[in-house]
Design brief:
mainly alpha, membrane
């Protein structure tokens, strides 16, 4: 949506932004932002334009997303497996990264599912579709920080001495969603969508910093990363 607003081609914009990124992270980043660019703009128009546009969204891209989103989720899980499986012995940082990637994908699926549930309520549907961007915020913010704002790397919280740079992406996402919640309450007297998203994001962010300490998660991680995919 940002690319379209500024009349940029998403493929060229991503290529410049992700320059120097390895293949796995480039795939993770590009899939995250392409998903948003492909699905959100029409949903947004469905919420703010006339009913014919809302109907067009529902019948065209809305139905196409039923096939696209499961494919993206499975592809993202595969990328997660490929990027982490060779990091034996698995450390706390690996299990934290696993929570970062898998739980983001799960949360994206949940938000998308809620958006589809409200597909006959265009304003609510558009809000949830827009919010699918927030679980996938960190691939871009991490890359920008590592390339341009190195002091934030050293200032990030750590796990076993390794900086968890996604912390800053988490913080930015929470600020933006909090601002949207305040705006929606002041402008539209709505307190249903953005506060709910804020709560989901907080739980997701906590999981990235805590799941590596849970034996069940470590067992799941060893099983998942040991799969022959």
């Amino acid at each position: 949506m940002v690319c379209r607003f500024f009349r940029l081609r998403p493929d060229r914009f991503l290529a410049q932004l992700l320059c120097g990124c390895d293949g796995i992270h480039a795939g993770w980043n590009a899939s995250s932002w392409y998903r948003h660019d492909a699905l959100v703009p029409d949903a947004h128009r469905a919420g703010v334009s006339d009913p014919r546009q809302a109907k067009g969204h529902s019948q065209n891209r809305g139905k196409a997303s039923y096939l696209l989103v499961p494919f993206i989720i499975l592809s993202t899980l595969n990328l997660t497996h490929l990027s982490l499986k060779d990091n034996e012995p698995y450390t706390a940082v690996v299990f934290s990264d696993l929570a970062l990637m898998i739980n983001a994908t799960v949360l994206f699926g949940i938000i998308y599912g809620i958006a589809i549930y409200y597909r006959k309520d265009p304003l609510t549907h558009a809000r949830y579709m827009f919010c699918t961007i927030f679980p996938m915020f960190t691939p871009i913010t991490d890359r920008l920080i590592y390339r341009n704002i190195r002091p934030l790397v050293e200032a990030a919280p750590t796990i076993d001495g390794s900086p968890i740079v996604p912390f800053w992406g988490f913080l930015l996402a929470l600020i933006l969603v909090g601002g949207l919640a305040f705006w929606d309450w002041k402008s539209n007297k709505r307190t249903d969508v953005f506060p709910a998203i804020l709560g989901m994001l907080v739980l997701y962010h906590i999981s990235v910093f805590t799941f590596h300490m849970i034996p069940a998660w470590r067992a799941f991680g060893e099983w998942f990363l040991g799969l022959s995919i």
